[in-house]
Design a protein that fits this description.
single chain, about 450 residues, alpha/beta, 6-stranded parallel beta sheet, 3-stranded antiparallel beta sheet, about 40% helix, globular
Length: about 450
C-alpha cells in the first residue's frame, strides 16, 4: 500500500550507463538504512510474530518460509475449518502417514491454536492476538476477512503499524475479485496450462503440481521481508496484495512479449528449446528411466559426439550446424534416444558432465532421498516426528550467515492453545476452559 512501485527505465543497452556510473560520486550508505543490531542472534525473523489465517498451499508455504527463519508463526484453525492435509481416523494408514508428512512440509515450525472465527468472541480474541503481532497473512477471497471485521482498515485500528499480506486468487479489486481459485484454475486462466504440455496435445491436461502456489507464497514472503525492512526504518506498516493469478502470469513475461511485439501466440513446446538441439528428456535403460541433456554450442556438439564414439550419423550434413540440427530435430532425437536407451540415467549424466555438456538424471523420490549432493549439504532433514519415523523433508533453501534454517513437524490441532491463550493473552485457565466449552476455542 506504500510506496507505489514504478518502472523507472527500460532494460539497459550494453554499456549505456558507463559514463554515468564511472563519474558518479561515491557515497557511503545512509546510516538510517542500517538496522542490524549486533546483540541480536543471526536469525532473520527473530522476535517477529506472525498470525497465520491461511489455507491450502500458497499462504501456508509463505508463512512456513518465515517460520523456517525464526518467526513465531501462530496458525489459527477451527474444527470446522482445518488446514487442508490434516489427518483423521477414517483415512487409510498409508494415506494418513503421507498426509502428515506433506502437512509438515508447508506447516513445519509453526504453533497451532484453535479459534472459531464464526463467533463474535472468537473474532475478539483474534483482534487481541493481532495486537501483539507484527504480521498477518491470509489467502481467502476478499469477502472473508471483511466479513469477520479483520480486513486491513480494521486491523490498522487495532495496531497502526501492522503488516498484512493478502494472497487472494484474483486480487482484492476487479470483476473477478470474489472468485475462488486453486492452482489448476490459476494455471488455466494465465495460459500456463496451455503452454505446459506437448506440441502434439490437442487439449491441455491438468498438471499434477501446485507450482503457482509455491511461486505466490515465495513472492509474498519476499514482499513481507521488504515491508519488515521498511517498518524497521520508519515504524510504518502496510498492506501487501499478492494476487495468485498475477504472480503466475508474471512468470510468463516472454509469452506476453511474443504477442505484443511479434504478434505471435506462443504454442506449447514440450521439452524442446528454440536455440539448442539435441535438447530434451530421453529414455534410458530400465523401466521408466529418463535423463535430460542440452547441447547448446558447436563445441558442446563436438564433445557430445565424442562421448557417443563419433557415430557416422553425426557426420550427416543435416546435423552440421545448430540451425540444421534444429530443423532436423525429430531425426536427431531418434539417434540420441537410441544411444541413451543403452545407458542408465546416471551413466548418461556423468559421461556428458565429464566433458562439459549439461545433463541430469531424472530422479524419483528414492533417488532424491539418496542424492549425495543433497546429503552432503545437509539439505535433507529428519522430521523428528514420532508418528512418521524416518521421514525426511527438504530443508530451507536460503542460508543466512551460514545458518541453515530450521525444520520441525507441523503442529497438532490446537497443540499450543495453552501458550497462545495463557501466556500471550494472559487468560486464566478457567476462562479458557469456558471458551472451549462455548465452542469459541474449538
Amino acid at each position: 500500500s506504500e510506496p507505489m512501485w514504478e518502472i523507472q527505465r527500460s532494460s539497459p543497452l550494453l554499456g549505456q550507463h558507463n559514463t554515468e556510473i564511472l563519474v558518479r560520486e561515491r557515497t557511503e550508505p545512509s546510516r538510517s538504512t542500517q538496522v542490524s543490531d549486533p546483540s541480536r542472534p543471526l536469525v532473520p525473523f527473530d522476535k517477529i510474530r506472525v498470525i497465520d489465517f491461511t489455507q491450502a498451499v500458497a499462504g501456508p508455504y509463505c508463512t512456513k518460509l518465515l517460520a523456517s527463519y525464526g518467526a513465531e508463526v501462530i496458525k489459527l484453525e477451527s474444527m470446522s475449518h482445518q488446514q487442508r492435509g490434516r489427518t483423521n481416523a477414517r483415512l487409510d494408514e498409508q494415506i494418513t502417514l503421507r498426509q502428515r508428512v506433506t502437512f509438515s512440509d508447508i506447516n513445519g515450525g509453526k504453533l497451532g491454536a484453535a479459534l472459531n472465527l464464526r463467533t463474535e468472541k472468537g473474532r475478539e480474541l483474534a483482534k487481541r492476538l493481532i495486537a501483539t503481532a507484527n504480521v498477518v497473512v491470509e489467502n481467502f477471497s476478499p469477502r472473508v476477512m471483511r466479513s469477520w471485521g479483520l480486513d486491513y482498515p480494521e486491523l490498522r485500528k487495532i495496531k497502526p503499524d501492522i503488516i498484512m499480506a493478502s494472497l487472494p486468487g484474483f486480487g482484492l479489486t476487479g470483476p473477478s475479485a470474489e472468485y475462488l481459485s486453486v492452482a489448476s484454475t490459476v494455471m488455466a486462466v494465465t495460459g500456463m496450462m496451455q503452454l505446459w504440455t506437448y506440441p502434439e496435445e490437442q487439449v491441455p491436461f491438468d498438471i499434477p503440481t501446485f507450482q503457482p502456489d509455491y511461486a505466490g507464497g515465495t513472492h509474498a514472503a519476499v514482499a513481507i521481508l521488504a515491508a519488515l525492512h521498511q517498518w524497521a526504518r520508519t515504524g510504518n506498516g502496510q498492506h501487501i496484495e499478492v494476487a495468485q493469478v498475477e504472480t503466475a502470469a508474471c512468470l510468463l513475461g516472454p509469452t506476453f512479449l511474443e504477442y505484443s511485439v511479434n504478434h505471435r501466440v506462443p504454442q506449447p513446446k514440450g521439452n524442446q528449446n528454440a536455440y539448442a538441439a539435441p535438447y530434451g528428456c530421453y529414455p534410458c535403460k530400465g523401466e521408466d528411466q529418463w535423463c535430460v541433456l542440452a547441447v547448446q554450442t558447436e563445441k558442446e556438439w563436438e564433445r557430445f559426439c565424442y562421448v557417443l564414439g563419433d557415430p557416422g550419423w553425426a557426420e550427416d550434413a543435416k546435423f552440421s550446424t545448430v540451425a540444421a540440427r534444429l530443423e532436423n530435430r525429430t531425426a536427431l532425437d531418434a539417434h540420441v534416444a537410441a544411444w541413451t536407451r543403452t545407458q542408465t540415467p546416471f551413466q548418461v549424466m556423468r559421461a556428458l558432465q565429464r566433458v562439459g555438456v549439461a545433463a541430469g538424471a531424472v530422479q524419483n523420490s528414492e533417488d532424491l532421498f539418496r542424492d549425495p549432493q543433497l546429503r552432503e549439504r545437509g539439505f535433507l532433514r529428519d522430521l523428528h516426528d514420532p508418528a512418521a519415523p524416518g521421514a525426511v523433508l527438504p530443508g530451507p533453501v536460503l542460508r543466512f550467515g551460514g545458518l541453515p534454517g530450521k525444520i520441525t513437524r507441523g503442529p497438532e490441532f490446537a497443540e499450543h492453545n495453552a501458550y497462545v491463550y495463557g501466556k500471550i493473552l494472559g487468560l486464566p485457565q478457567q476462562e479458557v476452559a469456558a471458551l472451549i466449552e462455548e465452542g469459541v476455542i474449538a
